[in-house]
Design a protein that fits this description.
The longest helix is centred in the C-terminal third of the chain and has 15 residues. This protein has a 5-stranded mixed sheet. A hairpin with a 2-residue loop joins strand 4 and strand 5. It has about 220 residues and is α+β, with helices and mostly antiparallel strands. The relative contact order is 0.23. It is built from 9 helices and 5 strands.
């Protein structure tokens, strides 16, 4: 999926189920109408201004994903749901990607750092998509090959990667996720309302449509 270039920077217990029963929909609607599970009651917001994003900053709906490049459900959501959301809603949504590398996924942190290094050369989203393609797998040799395929300056890319320039930034995403109650990937915040797991398009559509109706009243 080719998406806008990155000018800003910035892992998973696997969710128990990919597609959820009708009870989830009822719970989501009740929670939304009665109290919602939203991050505004926490000390921090899930929205970050220096993480990679797609869509306008003033979009009425913001979707923040805490994700892990080694998480199979993150890849599935990336491949099947994100393109549908972008096609359906366009500039009415802003999508922000934040890193949440799990201890059980040893390449999640290095992959996240490599994506940020690619972002220094305005190729964050292309590199992001390349990692999720898993064409070359994981590891530094794979990341360098992805960079070569994208035509990046390999010397600059390697300098960034070897110096671990973005180590602290990725770790800060993880810490922010913990403070927000994230403990698995993918976890999303749709206008601060939390959705856990690689839920299908229909779940996001239901909530996004409700949010659009609310803000347009």
């Amino acid at each position: 999926m080719n998406t806008p270039k990155k000018h800003s920077r910035r892992h998973s217990a696997v969710p128990s189920a990919l597609f959820i029963p009708v009870a989830f929909f009822a719970g989501l609607v009740c929670g939304y109408l009665l109290w919602g599970k939203n991050a505004s009651s926490t000390a921090i917001s899930p929205v970050s201004q220096d993480d990679p994003s797609i869509g306008p900053k003033n979009a009425p709906v913001t979707i923040v994903e805490f994700s892990d490049y080694q998480c199979p459900y993150c890849k599935l959501w990336h491949d099947t749901v994100l393109p549908l959301l972008i096609a359906e809603y366009g500039d009415r949504i802003r999508y922000i990607y934040r890193d949440y590398p799990l201890n059980g996924h040893p390449e999640a942190q290095p992959a996240a750092e490599a994506a940020n290094c690619a972002g220094d050369q305005d190729a964050y989203w292309e590199f992001h998509d390349a990692i999720f393609s898993n064409e070359y797998g994981y590891g530094q040799a794979a990341y360098v090959q992805y960079a070569r395929d994208l035509g990046l300056n390999i010397e600059k890319f390697n300098d960034c990667l070897n110096s671990r320039q973005y180590q602290d930034e990725v770790v800060q995403d993880f810490r922010d996720g913990i403070r927000l109650g994230v403990n698995s990937t993918p976890t999303f915040f749709v206008n601060d309302i939390q959705i856990v797991g690689a839920q299908p398009f229909s779940v996001f559509k239901q909530l996004i449509d409700a949010e659009l109706a609310r803000v347009n009243r």
